[in-house]
Write a sequence for this structure.
């Protein structure tokens, strides 16, 4: 089976915690796969859910097996099927629909696993201190054989009949939302925090919010040099290309620091001048004043004036200002992002 698909079974070991029971491929940091064990740590309800994670999109089924040996009388297990995809809107919808449709297959798979008699006693064999990638390696031949029979049967059922594999994206189709701001205003913190919020929200299961999560993956900090003469993003080393492929901007500054607002505006002005030279339309702009400390905050009037919010709005630009402590106010952060994404999607 191709590397673009992985089927993985995890369980909650009473001694070690979340552990891999078996996987079609060893999951390491370098595989770019989500931390499945962490998913299991945060979820203890039976059910099927989809989780979008950078390069992998996953469908997961959590289930219990009755067991006299387990604390609470139940073993906790999870089946995860993931497909590697690029992160652009249209394809992602297809992949999600596909994963969504595979929920019942995961449920049948779980029923078959539950019928493996030797499984629950085996889950309680002490495995700590033993060096193995998967718990299954320590099982007897009979359990291994019967488990792998089921595993392979369902892996086949899950595999797409047609190629879902995403080709290398044409650079011209790349769309970016750039985070722009002066030094130490919280750009990295903002990005990291959004990833975390997304992770903790994995239970929200409707298709629009999944697409929303995926759009988040197009966020990127626009890099610049000290003199503001050189700009680059992951794909492009000049400002013209970065701007050409932008679909929105997030302007970030420190809400207690006037100079920080002016610096962010200065940087954005260079970006916008390039946009004007390219005769491109101005894409939506989200402005976030990051509330850092308990210090006094800049007046909204100053911010409106600095960023020319009123004038731009009159020109038909979608632009909105939100004061937020990006480190603490997750809900507000997501509301602001939701506003931006709604104007784009
Ligand atoms: N108290 C507080 N500190 C923050 C906040 N946002 C960022 N920081 C801190 O400010 C520093 C600069 O943040 P960073 O994200 O690296 O800024 P960047 O240079 O714009 O990427 C770091 O030490 C962060 O921990 C915030 O909302 N509140
Ligand atoms: Mg940074």
């Amino acid at each position: 089976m191709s590397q673009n698909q992985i089927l993985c079974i995890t369980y909650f070991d009473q001694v070690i915690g979340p552990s891999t029971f078996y996987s079609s491929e060893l999951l390491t940091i370098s595989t770019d796969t989500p931390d499945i064990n962490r998913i299991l740590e945060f979820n203890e309800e039976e059910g099927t859910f989809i989780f979008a994670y950078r390069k992998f999109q996953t469908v997961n089924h959590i289930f219990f097996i009755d067991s006299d040996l387990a604390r609470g009388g139940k073993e906790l297990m999870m089946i995860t099927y993931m497909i590697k995809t690029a992160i652009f809107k249209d394809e992602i919808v297809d992949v999600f629909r596909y994963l969504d449709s595979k929920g019942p297959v995961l449920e049948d798979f779980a029923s078959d696993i539950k019928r493996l008699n030797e499984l629950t006693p085996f889950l309680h064999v002490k495995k700590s201190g033993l060096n193995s990638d998967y718990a299954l390696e320590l099982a007897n031949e009979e359990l291994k054989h019967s488990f792998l029979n089921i595993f392979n049967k369902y892996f086949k059922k899950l595999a797409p009949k047609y190629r879902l594999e995403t080709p290398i994206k044409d650079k011209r189709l790349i769309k970016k939302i750039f985070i722009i701001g002066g030094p130490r205003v919280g750009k990295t913190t903002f990005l990291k925090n959004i990833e975390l919020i997304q992770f903790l929200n994995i239970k929200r299961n409707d298709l629009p919010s999944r697409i929303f999560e995926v759009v988040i993956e197009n966020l990127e900090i626009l890099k610049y040099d000290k003199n503001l003469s050189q700009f680059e993003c992951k794909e492009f080393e000049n400002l013209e290309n970065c701007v050409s492929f932008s679909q929105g901007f997030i302007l970030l500054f420190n809400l207690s620091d006037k100079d920080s607002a002016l610096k962010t505006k200065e940087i954005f002005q260079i970006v916008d001048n390039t946009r004007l030279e390219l005769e491109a339309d101005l894409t939506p702009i989200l402005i976030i004043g990051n509330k850092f400390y308990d210090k006094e905050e800049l007046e909204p009037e100053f911010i409106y004036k600095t960023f020319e919010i009123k004038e731009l709005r009159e020109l038909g630009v979608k632009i909105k200002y939100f004061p937020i402590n990006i480190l603490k106010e997750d809900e507000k952060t997501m509301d602001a992002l939701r506003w931006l994404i709604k104007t784009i999607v």
User: Anything to note?
Assistant: The first strand starts at residue 5 and ends at 13. The pocket of magnesium ion (ligand 2) is lined by residues 187-188 (CB under 6 Å). Residues 165-169 have pLDDT under 50 and may be disordered.
